[in-house]
Amino acid sequence: MPFIILIIFAFIGVVGYLAQLNPERVTFFITRQTSFEMPVTALILFSTAFGGLLVILSAGIRETRNLFLNWKYARLQKKEAQIETYYTEAVNAFLGKRYRDATLLFQKVLALNPNHVSTLLRLGKIQRIEKNFNEAIRLHRRARSLDEQNIEVLLALSRDLEEAQRFEEAIQHLKEILHLDETNVAALTRLRDLYIRLQHWEEAHPIQEKIMKLPLSPEANQKERVIFLGIKYEIGRLFLQRDQREIARRYFKGAIKLDKGFLPAYIGIGEVHLKEGKTELAAALLEKAYEMTQHLILLHRLEDLYLEMGEPEKILQIYRKAIDKDRHNIVLKFYLGKLYYRLEMIDDALETLAEIDAHVEYFPDLHKILGNIYMRRREPDAAVEAFKKGLKLKKRVLVPYYCAECDYHTIEWSGRCGRCGRWNSYQANPILIDKANKKALAETPYSTPHPREII
């Protein structure tokens, strides 16, 4: 401050000195008609004062602007901090499934920032969980308008549309994601699942091929491989229904090439042979498939096929041969006894099934057949005892198949479980309990350590 005062006095001294040396006056024009005379030193002082005033005004404006910007920034920071607090609390409520609290907090965030994409995304998910699909779609579309390439938003929007049964729109959004990122696992699997749900097998196939090429864990790769086999099988069935047998055969063979133990594909090729009138070839195929997989369902197919062909001795030989290889297999003996019963070979059926009865405590299907046999032989006391163990007898005993994945039971075989949707999961196990060990006996899972090509 003293230095500034010193400069001011020095300036005044210089101006006074110049005023003595320059006593002349000058004419200063304000307009063309207006002017006045003034000393040269006065002009210098006026100019200096005017320049100083401009500097002061400029500095004042700059400082005022800086103060306003600082105030605005501080207010924005405070607003952002409030948004972050609300959003964090809302996410915690969402994760804790307190959706009402989460909704109120997310709405507070939107009141402060209507374009908060993450809030719109989460709020839309809550609406979907609460089955308000139209509101969920509206919120997610709004989020998408703010960030068109946000994959998470597109995934959420496709899920909304799928649950709202607007499948084609959901598919289009999943395709948009794959246009942005063709290896997006979530989009690929969701699109594949949608095609499977709609039974668009031909569209699902190339998507599943892309999934199979992704770097997956061994466990995930095995799961995807089973789905790939199932899709190939379904496409084969589709072409078989269209009577395009060669294409159907190609897809069934493709499934077997991937997994020599994939039962539905063998049955599919057998059906192709049957449509072509090649019954003996179909039977030979199923026989070789059974030798390779040891799957009892193939024996059931062969049983029906040979009986339709009027050649029951062939299936009897197959059962006997299988039992010779595994003399302690109660399940095989049961199915042989059931076949004897079906063929009205009552004495053979009784001999075979009675041998099993000596070793099991609880076997409803066995006891149903035995009861009927005793009735046919006019042995009512024995029949009553058998019927006590197995009720609701029908003339023909049907032993149901069951899904090893979800325990779904059905008397109709299918390549895909009607409950859980898994392929190649049906087993052919009757219910029985061993007398000695007091435990349920189950069919040993088949294995194919070194399968050979049979087609």
Question: How does this model look, in words?
Answer:
The chain has 455 residues and is mainly alpha-helical. It has 19 helices and seven strands. Helix 4 packs parallel to helix 6, helix 14 (296-309) packs antiparallel against helix 15 and helix 18 runs antiparallel to helix 19. It is rod-shaped. The protein starts with a helix and ends in a 21-residue tail after the last strand. 30% of the residues are buried. Mean pLDDT is 86; it is low at 392-396 and 440-455.
Task: Provide a compact summary of the structure.
With 455 residues, the chain is mainly alpha-helical.
Write the layout of secondary structure elements.
Elements: H1 2-21, E1 25-29, E2 35-39, H2 40-95, H3 99-112, H4 117-129, H5 133-146, H6 151-163, H7 167-180, H8 185-197, H9 201-212, H10 218-241, H11 245-258, H12 263-275, H13 279-293, H14 296-309, H15 312-325, H16 330-342, H17 346-357, E3 360-362, H18 364-376, H19 380-389, E4 401-403, E5 409-410, E6 426-427, E7 433-434
Antiparallel strand pairs: 1-2, 3-7, 4-5, 4-6
